[in-house]
Amino acid sequence: MNKKLIALAVAAASISGAATAAEVYSDETSSLAVGGRFEARMVMADNEAGDSKVTDASRVRVNIAGKTDITEDIYGIGFWEGEYKDGEDVDNRHLNAGLGGEFGQVRYGKTDGSLGMLTDFTDIMAFHGNEAGNKLAAADRTSNNLAYVGSFDLSGNNLTVKANYVFTGENENANGTYDVDGYSLAAMYAMDMGLAFGAGYGEQDGQAALNTETGKQAFGAISYTIGDFYFAGLYQDAENTEVHGLNVEESKGYEFAASYTMGDTVFIATYNYLEDSNNDKDLRDSIAVDATHYFNKNFRAYASYKFNNLDTDSTVGITKAKTSDEFVLGARYDF
């Protein structure tokens, strides 16, 4: 990408609270809330021919959450979220129901896996980031998924545990429809003094697009918040995962993230690296920076730039477009 585009990204970054869902119905035992976002996203990057290309990646998300009291201690829940992009069918991101109580929540349907709680440590950018945190299908948001989450107060500190099992069958996630049998589990401990850390493991038979050996993945994450600063790191060690549409027998990777809040503006930087350990090839290697300005709890605007350090010799099958820098301008309205 040319120097003019880099200069534009820097200039945009120098000028830079999602709203809660609105309750639309309630009675003595039940409630229904609606939320979502409208998000305009202009992505500038080089295409396969090496020419700069502008892509409209705008989207809208709508979610509906329901809750009803069953007994004094047990309640029922249901949640749906859909995403629409111009020219595409609606993507059902979440579609699940279950039970909750002091023990936590149990859901079945299309819902989050357990390792996303750990990638969230460093997946904090408005657009880029989370390249080294690619998860197995069974550990990510997927259908045919039985999931549990519990949060417990421990003398002012908080322990969150998650576990899920994906049943063999016609499952669906962001990568398409596939057949997989797997599970994941994770735990996170957040201390009152600003330190948090977590670990998790996932395993599955089958891939989103590949029929391979058993996939295995371990994550570790840590973060520290002090004043207006936030620092976080993520590490993964995996076997038989899918990256760039290829089966990678062994991989290791990490992501570092840092943010600084200055008034209503948040500045974030991340570094992502993921390698094919068997072949000593880079799969992900990038530095990204962004700035987001919150005009109020409902509206924000952001600029994000990714410096892509990959080249076409990094690994087999990588294309020129996947080695390009990217510059993104976005505006988001939450409701």
TrEMBL record:
It is found in: Cell outer membrane. SUPFAM superfamilies: Porins. The keyword Transmembrane helix does not apply. Its main location: membrane. Residues 1-21 form the signal peptide. Pfam families: Porin_4 (PF13609). One of its GO terms (molecular function) is porin activity. CDD domains: gram_neg_porins. Residues 7-311 form the Porin domain. Keywords: Membrane, Signal. GO terms for cellular component: cell outer membrane. It is a multi-pass membrane protein. This is Porin domain-containing protein. It comes from Photobacterium proteolyticum.
